[in-house]
Amino acid sequence: MASIPFDRRLYRQDIEGSIAHARMLARQGIIAGSDAETIVKGLYSIRDEIEQGKFQFKTELEDIHMNIESALFEKIGDVAGKLHTARSRNDQIALDLRLFVKEEIPRTVDGTKSLQAALVEVAEGNKTVIMPGYTHLQQAQPVLLAHHLLAYFQMLQRDRERFQDCLGRTEVLPLGSGALAGVPYPLDREFVARELGFKKVSANSLDAVSDRDFVIEYEAAAAITMMHLSRLAEELVLWSSSEFGFIEMGEAYATGSSIMPQKKNPDAAELVRGKTGRVYGHLVGMLAAMKSLPLAYNRDLQEDKEGLFDTVDTLQSSLEVFAGMMKTVRVNGDRIAQAMKTDYMLATDLADYLVSKGLPFREAHGVVGRLSQYAVSKGKNFRELALEEYHKFSPLFGEDVYEITLESSVAARNVAGGTSPQQVEIALKEAKRLIKE
Ligand code: ARG
Hints:
The protein is about 60% helix and about 5% strand. It is mainly alpha-helical and about 425 residues long.
């Protein structure tokens, strides 16, 4: 039954909510002003005791609300009994949790910004590096490494937006809903909302005490963010393998093996990839816990906290670790160049070349397909084929076919959102603006 081992984390929100409630009760003449003052003073001193580690949490008092109320009785006597006028633990816990999520969202957004900034830093530091772009993990077309990294910047940008959206629906005051039906007192809910920084008051008491959408939304946004981190983690793991060797991770984010001295394992990236699963778990757990709950409050809802807390902690620490780790990434341009020493990734450019000479694209595609098979069978790169060899496949090939390079391929993709240096420069500038937002 007891939730105090975990809901003690909400002590600050619980006290803040109680203070706003007590002040409102006095303003409305529901309790005396002097009583409210005594209550507020008592609550402040309980908060200080908790923060100084002097507070004795008691399991037999079940939850954070009862622990604080009982301490208030000890401190100020019977006046303490007036605080819970026009309130229930049902609207109280809904309030505490909303206050908690409302505070964590900006922190989470800051975490994503730090990682975005780290990505921009690595992108800027390696602006001219061309790498293989992949589809099906097969080399497809060359892209700028910066372009590749900025793809993750965009994912994180959407994540930020999702958290901001969720904030809008979290900033709704449930207090005043009572146990489920509202309360028979002339409350000023707008006052409490303003005191606590909420944008509005809830419109339906039954909904307000039993709604945990804001928890689920945070967890869903967290799950998506972790999925993005996990994709990036996977690439970093791949790139730091000896087969790829595209990057090296800073020592602090990798560990050696206890028995194989040659190894440097990308542990931090792997851990974040691994932790993605538990964040998904919390989301699914909460959806499952709620799926058959009748209105209004049910004790099942107490299950919302541990998953939420762990989601917040896991996500925020993952973002922090990733931001730190990205900054230590060393890009090995030589190894990346070596990976592209066959130039078959330029096949699309050869087709586009023929298009520029007047051939319809589908035909050009066929010609280059046959040309590629020929090149592979001869063990030659495109640039190693003689013009006569090109002419076996199309008379449209001229000397300028040798001007097609990785650089020209990248530069040619100068469409908005493309990988050309010019577009990537624009993207970097925009990225830096978004980080400051
Ligand atoms: N510990 C409870 C929770 O986390 C607080 C609300 C309890 N309300 C009740 N009527 N038992 O949901």
